[in-house]
């Protein structure tokens, strides 16, 4: 018998003597490659047939728990933290093994909007955990963006009250908005201009159109029209003006973004009258990307890598634009830190070395 700080009583009972007793928490089974999840639910009354299953998952003893004053069971604590964090467009799962998932309730993709300082302050409290995606990550319909978790089987209620207070304070400073939220992506109709003499003449098949469409459609938007131009500055300018005339929500120009004499796109985007936020983006792949605005219309120049690299600066910026954000020079500048995606790394093993 061991007493918790606030009078909680935890009693260890050998599994073979536990028939008829009530489980104090969910019990997890893991079969690598096949299953990880709850084998027994909190509150389950142990029956004789359960004994071999309990022994199979390594349980020689089970806990009988009597919570003291001022303490919360892991499931209740995780549930209360998640409830404090819940806001528009979010839904919570049932507490499970001391954990609650916070998911998107939206039927469109959305941008995660997460305040890191509050996440840090909550985790600073200890014994409880809040894990989130990084802010600006894309959350698909029904996708998860955060989870609350309690580390011990029971925690002082005042820890949970401290989380609730942190979130309340944040909300009062931000018109009721919580530190974890979603910005739905709008459905954009995009005008696409593909440059390159080798494509224009039919020498090679266009691979940019399908690549851009796939990315754009995965976020719920569409390429409404695709035009083609040779590597001629005046023609590219004329085509950009044509797309602007059609009132598309955004203009994307592909190819001709680097340093060859035939790379006319950046100069043409400027000549078309665009305000250039940045030509050059400190991220690899996608360093030759251009971000600008033609009046209020976002315009991007996409380098060749977008055709064949699965994750480039286009994947970082496009969701933010679809969420209605205006990209600033500072947004571009800060992409360099953490922006190297071409190296083979130990944690993913999926990167490739490029020159
Ligand atoms: N000396 C340097 N070389 C390169 C630099 C650099 O800064 N200095 N930058 C590199 C980076 S980063 C990229 S990305 C690539 C590509 O840049 P571009 O956007 O200028 O691409 P292009 O030169 O127009 O074409 C490259 C390659 O891709 C083919 N292509 C282009 N468009 C299409 C299309 N619609 N469908 C199919 N294939 C297409 C094109 O035929 C070329 O083979 O430059 C690096 N090099
Ligand atoms: O713009 Mo390049 O893409 O860095 O590969």
Automatic annotation (TrEMBL):
Pathway: Cofactor biosynthesis; molybdopterin biosynthesis
Any single Pfam family the record assigns to this protein: MoCF_biosynth
SUPFAM superfamilies in the cross-refs: Molybdenum cofactor biosynthesis proteins (SSF53218)
Ranges where the MoaB/Mog domain occurs: 191-324
A molecular function (GO) term: metal ion binding
Organism: Paenibacillus sacheonensis
Cofactor(s), by name: Mg(2+)
Task performed by this protein: Catalyzes the insertion of molybdate into adenylated molybdopterin with the concomitant release of AMP.
Protein name from the UniProt record: Molybdopterin molybdenumtransferase
